[in-house]
Structure formats: C-alpha cells, structure tokens
C-alpha cells in the first residue's frame, strides 16, 4: 500500500490552503476489540455458508426428494398438456359460424311438413290411453272410434295446440 | 503479521492445507483499511461492519480465480468499493430517497454517531465531504485519507487517471469553499 507522502500536502497547499492546514486524522472509531473479533466472525460466516451449501446439496440429491420432485414435474407437465388439448378443442368449436348454423336451420324449416308431424304425433299417442278416457267419460261412451278419428282428422290443428 | 506480501498470502491460500491460514493473514492485513474505506462511504458502523464481512466473503469465494492481471490490493479495494456503492444504491431505491437526501441523512447521523470522535472542525470537514457527488466523494477519500496513487485508483474505479485528477481537483475546491464559508 502507498505510504503517506508529501506530494499530496504540496498539492493541497496550492489548491486548497485552508484544507491543507487541517490535521489529517481518522475521526471514525470502532467498538472495543472489533478488529480482534472480525476475522473470527468472517471465518464463522464462511463455514456457515459452506454448511448451508452442503445442506442444499444433500436435499437436492436425496433419492426420496428426487422421486417426489419427478412425480410432481410429471403431473404438472401432463396437466399442462391436457389443458392445452382442451383449449384447442374448444377453439375448434368456436370456429363453427353462426351463419352456418342458421343456414342449416333454414333448410330444415323449408323441408318441414306439418302433416307428417301430425301423423307422427298420432302414432305416438298410446291407444290404450284414449280408450280409457272414452270409457271413463259417460258422454263419450256412445261415440265410436271411427267417429272420433274422423273428428281428429278434421280438427287436427286445434287439438294439437290444445294438447 | 503484515510482513507477509500479497503473493505469499496468495500462495498460502491456493494450497488447500494452508488456505484458512492464508485467508486469515489476508483479513488481518486488510481489515482496517477496508473497513475505514467503507465506513467513510456509508458512515454507519453497523452498515460498514456488514459490508466489510460481505467483502471478505466475496474475496474468499473468488480469490482462486484471481488472475493477477492487477494488484491484489486494488482488486480487494474494487470489491469493497462495489459493495459500498451497491449498498448506497439499494438504500436509495428501497426508500425512494433522492441522492442528495441520502447524503444529508448520513451527514445528520454523524452528530449522533457514538463511534465518531472527531472535533468540530473534523465534523465540518466530514459534512463538507458528504455534500460532494458520490464519485467525487470516493475519489477524495481515497486520495486524502488513503493516499492512493491515481494509477491505483484508476484500477479500482475503472476510470482514466486524467478523469480522476479532475474529480479530485473539483472536490478539493468545493471543500475549500465550504471551509472558508464557515
């Protein structure tokens, strides 16, 4: 280290005469025995850091920890992959445009036949049920099945909406 | 113990069997100059204590990789300076304090500092030094208290000798003005 010399004093005398008159001494102090203990404190911190490093090493390369960490990583990766897959699926569904749906519905509407619908509904109505209604109502007992079918055929729209 | 040269200490450190002994010699040799170098920058003893310990830990961790392109002495000072400057920067960022306010806070803390033994004139001088911008303060301390050569300071701070001379001259002039005013 550079030893004190007179070069600085001369330089200061020229540059700053007032400053050069001041006594140059260190005004800062330390607690008693501070420098005697400092070396030991530093050595302790270094050995603690070494132990800490060893501790991490032991944890990271412990077989149980490695297995558990591997399982977690596998689960996370598979979860991420399936999430991405479902995201892709839902994105494909969104690509079906509303216009296409409407045009499909329109074609259905154009080919819709009311008579075939009534016939289908008539076929679906259980015969037993209509016969039971006729039997239970005394006013209907005298009406034959043929009369009833004829009445239904003539007034099928009203009956359809009332039902 | 200070009779050991830096290259002897390095040799001892590089040998696994004498590493701790070599490092202990290095700490004993440099602890005081490094502590006071840091203390003049951060003012508070506790902060300086932490920083000097961190500096020696970094030296221990990196000394094997020291390639002797520069002097060990300047390399050690560079680590200490960087530690102190990083600490001041983090202090500013942590409390969102402007540069000037950090220096004024440090200046006020001098009065209450139990480990400041200077008289009134020295207190005035230290306060004047704290009014300087960080770089000028650093250069002034290294030259005025450590009497470091400009070439060595250039190695520590990574600046040209010309720029350092200019910084020192400006700093000295500013301090002279403050002393004259008082």
Key phrases:
heterodimer; A: mainly alpha; B: 182 residues; 9 helices
What does this structure look like?
The complex is a heterodimer of chains A (163) and B (182). Chain A is built from nine helices and no strands. Chain A has helices at 6-15, 17-21, 34-60, 63-94, 98-110, 114-124, 127-136, 145-154, 156-162. Chain B has 182 residues and is mainly α. Chain B contains nine helices and no strands. Chain B has helices spanning 6-14, 19-42, 45-62, 72-95, 99-112, 120-130, 134-144, 150-157, 161-181. In chain B, α4 packs across α8 (150-157), α5 (99-112) runs antiparallel to α6 (120-130) and α6 crosses α9 (161-181). Chain B is globular, with a radius of gyration of 17 Å. The model of chain B has no long low-confidence stretch (mean pLDDT 90).
Shape of chain A: elongated
Helix/sheet category of chain A: mainly alpha
The coarse overall form of chain B would be: globular
Q: Which band does the percent of strand residues of chain B land in?
A: under 5%
Largest sheet of chain A: none
Helicity of chain A, as a percent range: over 70%
The largest β sheet of chain B comes out as: none
Q: Nearest-angstrom radius of gyration of chain B?
A: 17 Å
| SSE pattern of chain B, N- to C-terminal | HHHHHHHHH
- N-to-C terminal Cα separation of chain A, in Å? 110 Å
Q: Helix and strand succession of chain A?
A: HHHHHHHHH
Number of helices of chain B: 9
Could you list the spans of chain B in which at least 5 consecutive residues all have pLDDT below 50?
none
Rg of chain A, Å, rounded: 50 Å
Question: Could you say which structural class the secondary elements and strand pairing of chain B correspond to?
Answer: mainly alpha
User: Biggest chain pair contact, residues each?
Assistant: A-B, 31 and 45 residues
Number of strands of chain B: 0
Question: Tally of extended strands of chain A?
Answer: 0
What is the number of helical segments of chain A per DSSP (H or I, 4+ residues)?
9
Q: For the terminal residues of chain B, how far apart are their CA atoms?
A: 44 Å
Poorly predicted ranges of chain A (pLDDT <50, ≥5 residues)? none
């Amino acid at each position: 280290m550079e030893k004190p010399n007179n070069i600085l004093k001369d330089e200061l005398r020229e540059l700053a005469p007032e400053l050069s008159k001041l006594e140059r001494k260190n005004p800062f102090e330390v607690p008693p025995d501070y420098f005697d203990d400092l070396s030991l404190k530093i050595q302790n911190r270094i050995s603690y850091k070494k132990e800490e490093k060893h501790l991490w090493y032991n944890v990271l390369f412990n077989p149980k920890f490695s297995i558990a960490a591997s399982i977690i990583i596998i689960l996370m990766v598979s979860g991420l992959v399936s999430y991405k897959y479902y995201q892709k699926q839902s994105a494909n569904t969104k690509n079906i445009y509303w216009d296409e749906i409407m045009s499909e519905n329109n074609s259905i509407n154009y080919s819709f036949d009311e008579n075939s619908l009534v016939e289908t509904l008539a076929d679906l109505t259980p015969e037993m049920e209509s016969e039971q209604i006729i039997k239970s109502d005394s006013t209907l007992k005298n009406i034959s099945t043929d009369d009833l079918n004829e009445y239904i055929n003539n007034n099928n729209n009203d009956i359809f909406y009332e039902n | 113990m200070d009779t050991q040269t830096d290259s002897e200490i390095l040799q001892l450190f590089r040998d696994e069997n004498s590493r701790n002994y070599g490092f202990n010699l290095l700490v004993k040799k440099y602890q005081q100059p490094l502590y006071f170098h840091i203390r003049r920058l951060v003012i508070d003893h506790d902060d300086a204590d932490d920083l000097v310990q961190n500096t020696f830990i970094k030296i221990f961790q990196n000394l094997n990789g020291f390639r002797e392109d520069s002097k060990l002495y300047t390399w050690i000072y560079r680590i200490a300076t960087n530690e102190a400057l990083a600490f001041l920067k983090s202090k500013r960022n942590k409390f969102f304090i402007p540069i000037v306010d950090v220096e004024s806070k440090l200046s006020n803390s001098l009065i209450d500092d139990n480990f400041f033994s200077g008289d009134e004139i020295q207190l005035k001088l230290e306060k004047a030094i704290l009014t300087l911008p960080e770089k000028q303060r650093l250069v002034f301390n290294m030259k005025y208290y450590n009497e470091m050569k400009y070439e060595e300071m250039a190695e520590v701070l990574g600046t040209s000798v010309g720029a350092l001379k200019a910084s020192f001259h400006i700093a000295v002039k500013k301090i002279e003005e403050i002393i004259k005013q008082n």
